[in-house]
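Private note to self, pasted from the team thread so I don't lose it. Backbone tokens:
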């Protein structure tokens, strides 16, 4: 499978859904809707919607339903980026190569734009087409847990903040990475499978796949912060080192970090070895996450 072509086609479909599902720029109060759209359409590969789609298609789910779900989760992800870039957190001026939301619209509107994207996500999950109420509730629970304080994104962000500039151990590093980034990526895989009506056996395998590739994604992110340029990343490179953050290269070195990522990809691929060709996108994604350069 040509993973670049898959990304390109899926991104175009996801962007069309996002454009339709977000309030129009001119809808009052227009400033908040312009701020939301500024960050949602600032670029990005749409990794999370692509994971939703690839997971659902591995068990032959409905593409339109999965695109709706992926677009909703991309809004949740974008909310986290807007807030993460704020001066009180990472204080970044660039995101995806463009000025961050608070640099364009001010901190107050940026905070509210993030809040609005999160609430819009939950509204869209409740309206997920072609899915029974029981599955909708399970998907809402997945996303709430993955972005919450216990083993979820916010908990990971707190641990990340508290570890800055301090000695850290492997347990702390694992918690931050599994929670801050990995939890939402894993939830994308699980939610796509749930929306597609995956059997318990399939869901369990996809859950393990999602846990592995979620960690791969963050390990490679850590490596790229050290090795890539700001232009390539679309955000400020070297910030993790400067802030003294808990990262894989800081604890293990770059080569050992790369070796760990390769081992995790092999484990992820083994989990879906028994799936048919519907899982080819998941297989290609695992390899892409390992080899990506931005």
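Design output:
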């Amino acid at each position: 499978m040509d993973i670049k072509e898959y990304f390109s086609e899926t991104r175009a479909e996801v962007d069309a859904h996002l454009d339709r599902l977000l309030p129009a720029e001119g809808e009052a109060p227009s400033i908040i809707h312009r701020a939301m759209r500024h960050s949602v359409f600032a670029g990005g590969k749409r990794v999370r919607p692509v994971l939703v789609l690839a997971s659902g298609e591995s068990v032959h789910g409905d593409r339109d339903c999965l695109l709706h779900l992926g677009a909703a989760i991309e809004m949740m992800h974008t909310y986290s980026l807007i807030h993460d870039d704020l001066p009180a957190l990472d204080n970044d001026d660039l995101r995806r190569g463009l000025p961050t939301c608070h640099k364009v619209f001010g901190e107050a509107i940026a905070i509210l734009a993030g809040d609005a994207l999160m609430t819009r996500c939950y509204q869209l999950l409740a309206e997920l087409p072609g899915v029974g109420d029981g599955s909708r509730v399970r998907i809402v629970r997945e996303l709430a847990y993955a972005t919450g304080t216990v083993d979820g994104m916010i908990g990971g962000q707190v641990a990340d903040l508290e570890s800055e500039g301090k000695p850290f151990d492997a347990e702390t590093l694992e918690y931050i990475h599994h929670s801050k980034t990995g939890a939402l990526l894993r939830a994308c895989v699980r939610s796509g499978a749930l929306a597609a009506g995956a059997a318990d056996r399939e869901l369990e395998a996809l859950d393990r796949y999602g846990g592995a590739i979620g960690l791969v994604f963050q390990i490679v992110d850590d490596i790229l912060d050290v090795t890539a340029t700001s232009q390539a990343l679309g955000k400020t490179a070297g910030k993790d080192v400067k802030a003294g953050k808990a990262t894989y290269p800081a604890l293990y070195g770059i080569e050992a970090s790369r070796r760990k990522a390769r081992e995790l990809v092999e484990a992820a691929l083994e989990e879906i070895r028994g799936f048919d060709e519907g899982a080819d996108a998941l297989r290609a994604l695992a390899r892409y996450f390992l080899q990506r350069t931005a």
